[in-house]
Structures are given as structure tokens and as C-alpha cells.
What we know:
The complex is a heterodimer.
Chain A: E1 3-5, E2 12-14, E3 18-23, H1 39-47, E4 55-62, E5 68-74, E6 80-84
Antiparallel strand pairs in A: 1-2, 3-4, 4-5, 5-6
Chain B: H1 7-15, E1 33-39, H2 43-56, E2 61-64, E3 80-81, H3 88-102, H4 104-108, E4 119-123, H5 126-142, E5 147-149, H6 151-157, E6 172-176, E7 180-181, H7 184-197, E8 201-203, E9 208-214, E10 217-223, E11 226-235, H8 240-246, E12 255-264, E13 274-277, E14 282-286, E15 292-298, H9 310-323, E16 332-342, E17 349-352, E18 358-362, H10 372-385, H11 399-402
Parallel strand pairs in B: 1-2, 1-11, 2-8, 4-13, 11-18
Antiparallel strand pairs in B: 3-7, 4-6, 5-6, 9-10, 10-11, 12-15, 12-16, 13-14, 14-15, 17-18
Helix pairs in contact in B: 2-7, 2-10, 3-10
Amino acid sequence: MLLISCPVCSITADETAYTCGGDAHVTRPQSLDPSYVSPERLTDYLNLAPSARGWCRELWRCHGCGSWFAMLRHSGNNRIAATYRLDEALPQPPEEAV
Amino acid sequence: MTRRYSFLSLAREALRGHRGWQPAWRKADLRDRYEVVIVGGGGHGLATAYYLASEFGITDVCVIERNWIGGGNTGRNTTIIRSNYLQPESMALYGLSHKLYEGLTGELDFNVMFSGRGLINLAQTRHELDSLTRIADANRHFGIESWLIPPQEVKRRVPILAMENTRYPLLGALYQPKGGVARHDAVAWGYARGASRLGVDIVENCPVERLLVDGEKVVGVATARGNVLADKVAIVSAVATSEIAATAGVRLPLRSQTLQAFVSEPIKPVLDVVVMAGAVHGYVSQSDKGELVIGGGTDTQTDHSRRGAPQRIEESAAAMVELFPTFSRLKMMRQWAGTVDMTSDRSPIIGPAGPDGLWVNCGWGTGGFKAIPGSGYVFAASLADGRPHAIAAPFGPERFRDGRVIDEDAAAAVAH
């Protein structure tokens, strides 16, 4: 079970106090014509998960303060490097071997 | 030397002190070149190799497995077999698989302990009843034996099911009389033995590191024991499929999630059907040893650790106690987790992956075990023919781009 600290309200609780919202920093593809986005780009957006084995960035929601925030977590061993607000600069994964 | 398994050979070996048995499959040495290299020695990979050799006469085949065969999701699932899916494409694929399972013990000369004991999918909300009615209608049109049964019949078939003072009322169930379970290890071992006897090489403990690409064509794989060239490379390794395919620049729409299961202490027979329940999210069957085999939902986040969160177990256990109050004092013996490769439409990906010579069979998510024979057969036919078999064709990876998804999210509402 993940032990997560919310960067907004700063409580620390296990993952049952949070909801995972999928990949962070992914935006729906836009084009100049709002009614058309190429199928290739939509496919990438809808189906291709950027989170593979290794460090991944995910959205989580805190049930306490109701805020969304992002988490930098290693999907191979579930180590959490950082949780951060969405308006913060992106923290980088630690460099040592995991 | 005893090769065939039969009553006679058992009796003969018993009299000779069991000294004549042979290993079920050869420990093969990796050669430099094969016609087909299959990456991944789980049920799907081994079944593909077996049918390539037995049905399509291609025996120059190697199955390369990172650990030991059948040690991934083939050995971690709850062994439920059914074919009552919603979409015609799925019914064709899972229906073929179900049919092959019924004759598999004879085909492989290996007891896979298939038990078509009946499968009951409970409807506990109005919406579930609606969606199961739709599935029952689809099944009837397609000729798959599966129909709705009323609460009285559910009670007759599952006497220990709680009927009074429950959170959800029992409104009926989707019943598939030939649904059931089989022995997961035996399926992997039976296919391995069958393939090995037909000349297929099975190489265990040999991780594939990357694909070998020549121009636009995949020409082989680089493994921990050196390079292997092949006319066709077929990746059948669940979540690792996308990692291996990525080394040739191919991206696959798979998401890795953790799914857990657990078993109780063995008890006397109390449950002679498989019961699935979507509203409380759990499914259970009783093994021949008497253990209750229980599963539930996946974790939500991307995860390769094969260590699930305890609250999922708690949820599944709570679901079971709600359905079967008599289970409340059972001890649970062990728990395990596997990494499932989920697609967005909950249907598998079978077909050519893009570059010449590269094929994939993955994305089985939470329900791959029931499909092993059918998947192996249609994938072998596709590899032998050089184009997708009619049943496999709708499951190509291009369906996500074209919007032709095969939506089984409703039929697979319970991870199964």
C-alpha cells in the first residue's frame, strides 16, 4: 500500500485516502480546426499510456482537501520520489539506481 | 521409456518403481536461427507453438521464456473459463477457445482438469440485469449456450448464497452451463510437452533484451544467450510485449495494472459452480483440493511490482462474505498478484505489429486464461499464413486508430 503525502494540505495517509486519476501532464490534442484532430494523434492520446516500467508521473486526488496533485513514482518498485502541486516546476527522478 | 500417459503406462510404471518417466519437455539449447521465434512461454505462447507444429506443420519454432514457463499470468489467474461475451468478434474467439478446452485433455494427452461445472454471473442491480439480458440475447444469436435464470434457480444451484437481509437484491443471473475452470499449470505444461514432442525448442531462463531490426524488417531477437535470427518474431509476453516491441519503435496501447487473487484453507465441497458478482466485485470457485479461489478488482495505477494493495483483498473478501456469510470464518491461506496488460476496450491485440516479420498477441488483461487454446490456434494460423486468421483479424492493433474497438468493458465488468 502506498503512503502518500498531499502537497496541498500536507497530510500523509495511505492510498485509500486518495484516488488515482491517470497520467499527469497529458493534454488532449488540439488543432486549428476545433472539430478535427487527426486519428493518429487522438489514438495516441486515448490509448497510449506514457507510464511504462520506470518513473512515471500520475495525477492523484486527495480526499481530504479535494485537490488534484501529481506524483512521481517508480512503477517497478512503487517508490515515491515526490508529490507536487500542478503549478510547481517538475521534480526530477533521483539519479541513483533503483 | 514411457512417453504416453495412460492407465496402462501408469500401471506399468507403478510396477517398475516409476523409473521410466521422461521429462515432459526437453531442455533445448538455443540455436542461431528459427523460422518462428515466440517470445514468452506462457499459455498463449506455448499454445501458439503447439498449434504451429501440430496443425500447420511448422516445427522450426523456438519459445523463449524469461523465467520458467507458465510462471507469469498463466500461473496467477483464477482459471475461469467462459465464452459468454457481448460482441460477435469476442464470441467467435472465446467460443473457439471454450470448444478447444473441452477436448484439450485428449488432444494433449495431458490432464488439464477442465471442469465445465457451470458459471453463474449474478445480477444484483437493475442495470446489471439489463446488461446481462443483452449479453444473453447476443449469446443466443451467436449459438453460445448461455441464458438468464431467475433467483429461485440461482438459489437452487448455489444454496449457500445469501438471500435475505442483503445489501443488493438477487434479481437473476446469467448462466453458462459449460463454463468452468481448468488447471492452469497443466495447460502450460501440456502445451509445452505437446510442442516439445513435435520438435519445438523451449528455452527457459533466457530474457529477450531487444528486437533485431534490419531496415524496416524485424529479423530476430537479442537474448541474454546471444542473438537468434528468425523469419517471424511473435511477442506473446503480456505487459513485456510493449517493452520489447518498443525496441523496434512500435508502441502498443497497453496499460500495466496489478490484479490479485487469494485462496482459502481447504474445506469440504460447498460450491460446485463458478460464481461472479459485478455489484460487489468478486468471483469465486472451489478447487478440487477444496480451497476457495477468490479474485476481485485491479489496482488503479500503473504498476509492475506484482505486489497489490491490501485494500483490494479486503474488498474482495468483503464481497465474498456479503454473498456467502458462511465463508466469514474461513482463514485465507495465501495471496498473490500479477501484472495484467489492459487495453482500453478490454479486448486483446492479435496481429502484425507494423514492421515486417513482427507479430504480437497481447492485451489479454484480466481474462486471458480462458482464451489460451483459441488464441494459440488463431495466432498460429495467422503466423503460418502470413495474414491474420478470420477470427483474429478484427483484433489487430490498427482498430484503435480506426475507431473499430471491440468494447467488452461491460461484459468484463468484473475483472475475471
